[in-house]
């Protein structure tokens, strides 16, 4: 329960910081929440590539560990 509360408090604090920084930079008040909730709208093409590579790397590591566990399980069942 504590961990969930910490996550919510940190997420709320970061969201508030994002809103405050955007407000200080002069973003229109009606766009503050939209900009904070949709970060992909303000991304550059290079940032899209980095996010895609990160997701690809994550999926490859996930599949690699899955197949490693599967292989280990199959070896233990045959012995």
TrEMBL record:
It holds the Pfam family YczF. The chain crosses the membrane at residues 7-25, 45-63. It comes from the Bacteria. The keyword Membrane applies. InterPro entries: YczF (IPR058725). Keywords: Membrane, Transmembrane, Transmembrane helix. This is Uncharacterized protein. It comes from Neobacillus bataviensis.
């Amino acid at each position: 329960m504590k961990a969930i509360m910490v996550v919510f408090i940190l997420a709320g604090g970061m969201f508030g910081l994002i809103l405050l920084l955007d407000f200080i930079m002069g973003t229109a008040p009606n766009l503050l929440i939209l900009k904070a909730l949709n970060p992909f709208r303000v991304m550059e093409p290079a940032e899209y590539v980095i996010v895609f590579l990160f997701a690809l790397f994550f999926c490859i590591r996930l599949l690699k560990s899955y197949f490693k566990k599967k292989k280990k399980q199959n070896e233990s069942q045959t012995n």
